[in-house]
Amino acid sequence: MKSRRQRKKLGQAGWRISEVERLTGLSRRDIQRVCYQGEGGIGLLSPKETKWGYRVYSARDLKVLYAVSLLRERGKTLPQVKREFERVHSDVDAILGEQTDLLREEIERSVIRYHKALALGCAKDRDALERLFRHIVAFEMTFAEDACTNAGADSTLDLPEMELLVELMYGPGSYEGIRGLL
């Protein structure tokens, strides 16, 4: 067992591969292939080695490996991941930005489906529909990119899930009638 002092020094130098696996979600094999320059590897990183013979990964290495993890989750092979890094001239921030935008879009689609499922689940309970309406408005105000410009009933009614909710609350055709009043 390593002494506390040795662990502290190692922690200051960077993260070990077991920690990187846990933090990024990549397998040890993928992490090694990302670092390996030869056949089967893509050579994106060169982690430092400590005097104890451990490879340690920096915060930038973690950033690259997390970007790799996101691309792998999208079904990209490691050679495709390497081409993605070459496309943006190894700008990991550009890749993370693109992946963040894609994740935000996925979240928005999931939230819409979730709200529609909730609305249909409580379709016969007017009070539950009204609570859901208030929940959706509060949710939108909380997660809107610019709460000042996205606030208000008219913009909330523009949400894709609101048409279904309003129609369930007030009956068929009511959504267009309400939209016409605003």
Number of strands: 2
Tally of helical runs: 11
Through-space gap between termini: 69 Å
**Biggest β-sheet description:** 2 strands, antiparallel
Estimated radius of gyration: 24 Å
N-to-C SSE string, H for helix and E for strand: HHHEEHHHHHHHH
What's the helical proportion of residues? 55-70%
Secondary-structure-based class equals mainly alpha
How confident is the prediction overall: mean pLDDT? 86
User: What share of residues are in beta strands?
Assistant: under 5%
What does this structure look like?
With 182 residues, the chain is mainly α. Helices cover 70% and strands 2% of the residues. Strands 1-2 form a two-stranded antiparallel sheet. Strand 1 and strand 2 form a beta hairpin. The longest helix has 30 residues. 18% of the residues are buried. The model has no long low-confidence stretch (mean pLDDT 86).
